[in-house]
């Protein structure tokens, strides 16, 4: 009896591991593995024509934050890198903010439609996803370029005399990323709003809450999980965005993604690229921790 | 105090037009426990939502103490609602739920704290203030919903089937509790239910609704004893309906001729003339089973149903109508008849109610 139970337990254990295997394989080879390689590369010496030489070096990490003057060897902060870090964080935050401002009413609108209409609206949100990222980005480019739709329209109705220079600015990058990542905000927001019990909103009005109070005290705390998820889904890929800043920023407004690509490409400095990648990861993790803690404190009340 | 006058609410247009409320007029007095009673879809909840401000009537006026209530948005009306599913805020504690209305009214902190304590005591929820609403039972949620709605001291409290989600025992005790709260606070209660027993036990007055209009308004006893029409008699309690012909009608009394040819005195609640063919309603507990020779009507005992406190005699009358007599059980009661026996049914003069139709 006891023996039987032990055999069964052992078999169950084995089955459990078997069932876990696919997930473990993916985690090891697709997530942890590449990360580990990147980490190792960041401590190696750059090869002459790309690649790495297997010699330990902290040059790459040094170069992420500092630069040595070519002539007199004085040390200074790597302004170019730091300004790119700063721009990446700034543009990603602005994109996230814009996605909240645009996505919240959109999700609310869809969630308050009759049930059989909601799928249609969600389909409209999803359609851009089926189009290639480059094509979508070029479409936005067409809208905002100097001879583009927006400028032509504004000039025709006489609001402006000369075309607005939007393309190849930071604004253009934000517009581009906003367009690409907005659905990632709308989807989780909609999911949490759809579960929202609208009698709670009525209860709010019934208890003398104005529209603003109902939004602030009832709707926002209740859809907070969706808001956090959406913000993370927009902020993280924005920080590492590569195609959009490249096309919309015209190569002048580099973001972290472009800087990393540069090191692996023309720069032929793989260790620096690897170090920058790890830095990006660190920024994302710090931002996420900070965001989750702040968001958790606000709504939790006494929690 | 609340004056609802000729209120109608239509949904849709053309052929699909549906009247949720059809020319409803009713006035509710200060400190009254007023019940809107009717089957689902009769418009009772719609009427409640008109008062609360969540539904705009197509026509009609609603005033409170002479002020036009319809001109105010829901959050400016001095009424609070206890919702059917309670609608407690899941992200707030019991205390925060109860304090919500007071905070929105901008009351000072000390007053809010005092009122919340007072309300917790009123609904007997002391010591639960810092629980999450998901951590308390259905009955307790019900109490919190009541306390939350009562805390801002509204002039009128609207209750939308608040007891329907509770089990039988809890419902019974909450009925008494609600009545106590209403008497203690002196707030006007407008209570919506489809449960006739709830309505009869708690209300000062009942309005019976059907298909968007009010069919009868009156105190519980009047509604039960003197139903004005077939729907009311049928919806509240059990009733036998007998086709009768009016022989004479005078004031509130009428002589009616039954299907058996016998005549009996009955109460007249509506205008009727001699010769009219109409319906007589007789409550099962008002009738008696007697030997065939003594019966106003005769028939065959088709079924005996034992209910513990009483027994129902199902009698198939000679004119084909099923008539139910309810007899309270006594320990020493001799058996009146057996299934299949020929039997007589009788009821005293004045017990039958002549209905409108």
List the helices and strands and how they pair.
The complex is a heterodimer of chains A (303) and B (357).
Chain A: H1 2-41, E1 44-46, E2 52-56, H2 59-65, E3 66-68, E4 75-77, H3 79-111, H4 115-126, H5 133-144, H6 149-156, H7 170-194, H8 198-206, H9 211-239, H10 243-248, H11 256-264, H12 270-300
Antiparallel strand pairs in A: 1-2, 3-4
Helix pairs in contact in A: 1-12, 2-12, 3-7, 3-9, 5-7, 7-9, 8-9, 9-12, 11-12
Chain B: E1 2-11, E2 18-28, E3 33-37, H1 44-52, E4 59-64, E5 67-68, E6 79-82, H2 94-104, H3 109-122, H4 138-150, E7 156-160, H5 168-185, E8 188-193, H6 196-202, E9 205-210, E10 213-218, H7 220-225, H8 230-235, E11 240-250, E12 253-257, E13 263-268, E14 277-282, E15 288-290, E16 297-306, E17 310-317, E18 322-328, E19 342-346, E20 353-354
Parallel strand pairs in B: 3-8, 3-9, 6-7, 7-8, 13-20
Antiparallel strand pairs in B: 1-2, 1-4, 4-5, 9-10, 11-12, 11-14, 12-13, 14-20, 15-19, 16-17, 16-19, 17-18
Provide a short characterization of the protein structure.
The complex is a heterodimer of chains A (303) and B (357). Chain A has 303 residues and is mainly alpha-helical. Chain A is built from 12 helices and 4 strands, in the order H-E-E-H-E-E-H-H-H-H-H-H-H-H-H-H.
């Amino acid at each position: 009896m006891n023996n039987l139970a032990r055999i069964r337990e052992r078999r169950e254990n084995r089955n459990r591991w078997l069932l876990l295997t696919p997930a473990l394989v993916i985690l090891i080879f697709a997530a942890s593995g590449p990360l580990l390689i990147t980490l190792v590369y960041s401590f190696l010496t750059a090869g002459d024509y790309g690649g790495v030489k297997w010699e330990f070096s902290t040059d790459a990490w040094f170069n992420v934050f500092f630069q040595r003057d070519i002539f007199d060897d004085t040390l200074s902060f790597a302004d170019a890198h730091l300004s790119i870090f700063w721009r990446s964080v700034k543009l990603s935050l602005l994109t996230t903010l814009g996605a909240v401002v645009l996505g919240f009413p959109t999700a609310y609108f869809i969630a308050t439609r009759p049930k059989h209409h909601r799928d249609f609206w969600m389909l409209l949100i999803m359609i851009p996803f089926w189009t290639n990222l480059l094509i979508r980005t070029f479409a936005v480019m067409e809208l905002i370029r100097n001879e583009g739709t927006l400028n032509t329209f504004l000039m025709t109705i006489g609001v402006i005399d000369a075309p607005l220079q939007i393309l190849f600015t930071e604004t253009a990058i934000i517009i581009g990323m906003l367009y690409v990542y907005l659905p990632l905000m709308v989807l989780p927001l909609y999911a949490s709003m759809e579960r929202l019990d609208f009698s709670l909103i009525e209860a709010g009005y019934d208890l003398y809450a104005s529209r603003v109070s109902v939004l602030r005290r009832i709707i926002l705390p209740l859809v907070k999980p969706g808001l956090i998820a959406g913000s993370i889904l927009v902020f993280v890929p924005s920080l590492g965005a590569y195609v959009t800043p490249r096309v919309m920023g015209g190569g002048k407004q580099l973001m972290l993604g472009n800087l990393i690509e540069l090191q692996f490409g023309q720069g032929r400095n793989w260790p620096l690229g690897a170090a920058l990648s790890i830095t990006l990861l660190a920024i994302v993790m710090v931002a996420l921790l900070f965001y989750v803690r702040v968001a958790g404190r606000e709504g939790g009340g006494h929690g | 105090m609340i004056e609802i006058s000729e209120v109608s609410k239509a949904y849709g247009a053309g052929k699909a037009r549906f009247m949720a409320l059809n020319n409803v007029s009713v006035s509710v007095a200060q400190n009254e426990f007023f019940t809107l009673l009717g089957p689902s879809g009769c418009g009772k909840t719609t009427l409640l939502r008109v008062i609360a401000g969540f539904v705009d009537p197509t026509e009609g006026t609603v005033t409170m103490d002479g002020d036009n209530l319809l001109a105010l948005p829901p959050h400016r009306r001095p009424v609070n609602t206890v919702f059917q599913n309670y609608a407690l805020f899941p992200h707030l504690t019991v205390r925060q739920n109860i304090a919500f209305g007071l905070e929105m009214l901008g009351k000072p902190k000390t007053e809010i704290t005092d009122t919340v304590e007072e309300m917790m005591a009123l609904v007997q929820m002391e010591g639960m203030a810092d629980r999450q609403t998901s951590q308390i039972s259905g009955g307790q949620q019900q109490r919190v919903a009541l306390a939350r709605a009562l805390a801002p001291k509204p002039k009128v409290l609207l209750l939308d089937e608040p007891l329907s989600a509770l089990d039988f025992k809890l419902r019974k005790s909450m009925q008494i509790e609600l009545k106590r709260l209403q008497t203690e606070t002196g707030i006007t209660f407008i209570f919506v239910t489809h449960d006739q027993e709830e309505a009869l036990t708690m209300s000062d007055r009942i309005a019976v609704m059907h298909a968007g209009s009010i069919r009868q308004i009156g105190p519980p006893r009047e509604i039960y004893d003197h139903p004005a029409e077939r729907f009311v008699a049928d919806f509240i309690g059990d009733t036998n309906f007998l086709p009768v012909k009016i022989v004479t009608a005078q004031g509130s009394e009428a002589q009616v001729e039954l299907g058996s040819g016998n005549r009996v005195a009955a109460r007249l609640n509506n205008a009727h003339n001699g010769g009219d063919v109409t319906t007589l309603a007789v409550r099962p507990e008002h009738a008696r089973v007697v030997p065939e020779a003594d019966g106003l009507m005769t028939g065959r005992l088709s079924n005996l149903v034992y209910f513990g406190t009483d027994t129902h005699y199902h009698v198939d009358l000679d004119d084909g109508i099923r008539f139910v007599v309810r007899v309270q059980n006594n320990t020493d009661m001799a058996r009146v008849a057996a299934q299949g026996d020929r039997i007589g049914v009788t009821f005293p003069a004045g017990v039958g109610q002549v209905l409108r139709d």
